[in-house]
Amino acid sequence: MKRPWQGWWIDAIGLGAIGAIVAGAITMGVREREGIEEAWTVRAKQANAQRAELARLATERNELLARLGEQRSEIEREGVTLRPAREINGVLARLSEAALAHGLKVDQLSPSGAAPEGDLRRIGIRMVGHGTFPPAVEALRTLDREFPDVRVEGFEMTGTPLSLGQPSQFTLDLSWLAVPDA
What kind of architecture, by CATH, is found in domain 85-178? Predict the structure, then answer.
């Protein structure tokens, strides 16, 4: 017959092996949990950054919508009838005639690409020519009065002050507000 604790060392080895397996499983579980927590932290930071970007874009969108509303109100208030962008040549001809009517010589009149502005289009126009200052000022007043859909973006006049009476070169940057072509 066997004595009760005759194989105790086998039991001890078995208990040690089980203990090592349990300790390894716990260690792996702790490390895995730390990895999961780290991944969650990274994802939480990314989500916060995306929320901040979304808030910035929402604010920018609201500002653009407010600007669009202001422009529409201004257009309605002034009773301006906007023409389709395909009528750019007619606008260029009228601008050239207005400059010539004030004694300005137009050397170049060129449109640039149409930039979307809400559901409208803003088309840049550059006019380069020669003339004297008083007629140029009168031409600008005429533009303001007779072309409500055209905005003066910039005006530059250069010349030599010693040559009085000689025409100076001017550059007039305009933008025309139009509806998109149908």
Answer: 2-Layer Sandwich (3.30)
pLDDT digits (tens, 9 = 90+) for 104-113: 999 999 998 8
Q: Is 1 exposed, middle or buried (0-12, 13-18, 19+ CB in 10 A)?
A: exposed
End-to-end CA distance of the chain: 106
From edge to edge, which strands make up the β-sheet containing 168-178? 105-117, 120-131, 168-178, 150-158
2-24 per-position pLDDT tens digit? 566 566 677 777 778 888 888 77
- Residue 112 CA to residue 156 CA, distance in Å, equals 18
Placement of tokens 């916060």 in the chain: 48
Tell me the C-alpha distance between 152 and 175, whole Å. Answer: 7
The one-letter amino acid code at 118 reads G
Per-residue pLDDT tens for 60-73?
988 988 888 887 77
The structure tokens 């007779």 sit at 146
Phi-psi region of 79 (alpha: psi -120 to 50; beta: other; left: phi over 0): left
Locate all alpha helices (DSSP H) within the chain, ordered by sequence.
Answer: 8-78, 88-101, 133-146
**Burial readout 12-37 (b: 16 or more C-beta within 10 A, e: otherwise):** eeeeeeeeeeeeeeeeeeeeeeeeee
